[in-house]
Amino acid sequence: MSKKSNRPENLSGTARRLLRMTWKYKIRLITACLCMMVSSAAVVRGTYYLKPMVNNYFVPLIGQTIKDASFVKALSAAVKGGDHLLSGAARILILMAGFYLVSSAASLIESQLMVSLGNQVMFDLRTELYDRVLSQPLDAVLSQPAGALISSFTNDMDSLNNMIRRSLPYLINGTVTCLTILATMIGLHVRLTLVMLACTCLMLPVMSWLAKRSMKHAAARQVCMMELTSKAREYTQSQELIRTLGMEDTARQQFSEKNARLFEHAFRADAFSHGIFCVTNGLSRIGYAVVLMAGSAMALSGSTDIGTVAVFMQYYNSFYKPLTDMTKQISNVLSALAGAERIFRVLDVEPEKDDGDIVLTGWEKPVSGGNTLSAESDGSGSPAWKTEDGMVPLRGELTLEELVFGYIPGKQVLRGISLTIQPGETVALLGTTGAGKTTVISLINRLYEPEGGSIRLDGIPVTRIRKESLRHAVTTVPQDTSLFTGTVAENLRYGKPDANQEELWKILRLVGADFFVEHLPRGLDTMLDRGGENLSQGERQLLSIARAAASDAPILILDEATSSIDTYTERKISQAFDRLMSGRTVLVIAHRLSTVQNADRIVILDGGKIAECGTPGELIRRKGYYYRLLHADEV
User: Fold this and answer.
1) How do beta strands 585-589 and 555-559 pair?
2) Can you say how many angstroms the Cα of residue 449 is from the centroid of all Cα atoms in its chain?
3) Nearest residue to 389 (alpha-carbon basis) of 429, 358, 412, 361
4) Residue of 215, 228, 211 lying closest to 155 (CA atoms)
5) Distances in Å between the alpha carbon of 473 and those of 134, 179, 491?
6) Do residues 22 and 164 make contact, with C-beta atoms less than 8 angstroms apart?
7) Residue in 430, 433, 399 with CA at minimum distance from that of residue 417
8) How do residues 551-596 score in pLDDT, each as one tens digit?
């Protein structure tokens, strides 16, 4: 995703796409728009009754005073006898109240419908956005600026929701109200309408200038908010590193600079936004005086009546309020559309290709969506690959053929690696940082696609295997422990969603993690805070290993799986690892030589190529790279 822009690059396209999303709920949308029209029309019509009220029931009383005895007697008699003067005024008041009540009811229904519509569209958009992120190629997700995706889920979504719930109703309702009032004004008195429009034309340049300045700084505020959110998230997650490196002052300064930029643009955006109201309010009052003077002169000359002037002035106030509100809302709409454009940009990233036609069958492990793989197998009751030529037993044989890959074009990490791992064999990959060990794992899991060469599983190219099936056959314990906020049991069930309590304890005992889980406050129901921060690093690693054990996959990859475990804990789970690896194809990546000495074979990577390969004994006798590492204790 590109850096956040101040304005939507494709305003009409983004608006049309957003309209298509809301059109799924067209009944609510159309009903809300009709309610807006009814509300505006009812207010305008109710206000119109000021004209007959003034002309028919107040003008005749001009010259009468409350001290005039005859007026008091006449008023008393009218109340008792139901004089047509008072009864007519009462009917008009009832009509006005009725129209205003209709307007209020329609406005209430419209607001509830728009709130419902806004939340529904946001629900759909969040769901689609998260689904798309999960289905996109890993490099597309990792290439996003830090915090940009989080900002799309929060700031951009909030702006879009506010636009649908508030800004759009303001604009639609304001437009309908202004047009209805203008049409009614023209019907009332053309010359007074022209005077009002002349005042409006003098105000528009000022309102336009203020609105543009407000929009500019409001958009910049959104950009600064994204940058500040990203920096705050980065610094919050790196507190230990910041403190150990003594970076507190640097972190404060950098955060303060971004906060100051946000303050500056937020202040200016709000200042210009409120300035629109203050300036237009002042100018409208001047215009009000001008129109009132013109109307009074026309009434005195006999070219209009007092009732017309009275209702016209009421329409004048009703005309400028939505006009001012609409001017203030335009900046919010543009900022929200810019956010929607960024969200759509994420949605438009092509999902990772999965053109595999071979699936894994006979596997009890539930897959995403609550489905289970077919019970069909090769006839032996064991998992098998279902190919067009029949069933191929899942044995766990991995073959790498002349693998070539680079994260950056022209800069290769792997340069023609070929390796075959037999079913049930344990192979260890050793090498310096950047040698390509973790890259091999990523290619096996098809997180990336090789530039050259191929990978085969049981003789089947992995490109022909459905990714979901491939990743059910291969489980990985990553170097960086990844636990989720939730209970211990919930984290373990990511490996086996249908596991009961007894099965979970069995898995924990298998990897030697039961000894510390038993002493947690609530055992398996203990809540892990923010990815397990209430556990030690070693305990988090043990739970990560237990989660992999729960998946019971035939191919196991350990990427520095014991890097964060102390020597005592490592010894404690060594036997558990032996049981876990039994009957499985295991690929171990490690820097500690103690973790690979029991491997069937050791492969040394150097410069993206295989430098040495053989059993530990063979490599020692060759006195090459492995021999030097072993005797120099470099790892």
Assistant:
1) parallel
2) 27
3) 358
4) 228
5) 19, 65, 19
6) yes
7) 399
8) 888 888 888 766 556 666 666 666 666 667 777 888 988 766 666 7
Grouping H, G, I as helix, E, B as strand and the rest as coil, residue 452 is strand
Q: How far apart are alpha carbons 283 and 290 in whole angstroms?
A: 11
pLDDT, residue 379, reads 44
What integer best gives the mean pLDDT of the chain? 80
CA distance 338 to 13: 11
Residue-wise pLDDT tens digits, 417-437? 999 999 989 998 988 778 888
Q: Which domains can be identified in the chain, with CATH numbers?
A: 11-347 (1.20.1560.10), 359-391 (no CATH), 395-632 (3.40.50.300)
Largest Cα span, the chain: 130
**Using one digit for the tens of pLDDT, what is the confidence trace for 592-616?**
666 677 788 999 888 888 988 988 8
Give the count of beta carbons closer than 10 Å to the beta carbon of residue 515: 12
Helix (H, G, I), strand (E, B) or coil at 2: coil
Total Cβ atoms within 10 A of residue 56: 14
Which residue has tokens 């085969």?
456
Pairing of strands 460-461, 452-457: antiparallel
481-492 per-position pLDDT tens digit? 778 888 889 888
Specify whether the CB–CB gap between 43 and 321 falls below 8 A: no
**Amino acid letter, residue 305:** D
Cβ atoms 60, 145 nearer than 8 A: no
Dihedrals phi, psi of 587, to nearest 5 degrees = -120, 120
Quick check: helix, strand or coil at residue 169? helix
SS3 readout for 72-88: HHHHHHHHHHCCHHHHH
d(CA 156, CA 342): 8
Radius of gyration of the chain (CA): 37
**Short-list 100, 179, 162, 128, CA closest to 17:** 128
Nearest-5° Cα angle at 273, 270 to 277: 130
Q: What does DSSP say about strands 527-528 and 601-606: parallel, antiparallel, or unpaired? A: unpaired
pTM for this entry:
0.69
Phi, psi angle pair for 305, to nearest 5°: -115, 165
Q: How far, in Å, CA of 385 to CA of 41, rounded?
A: 68
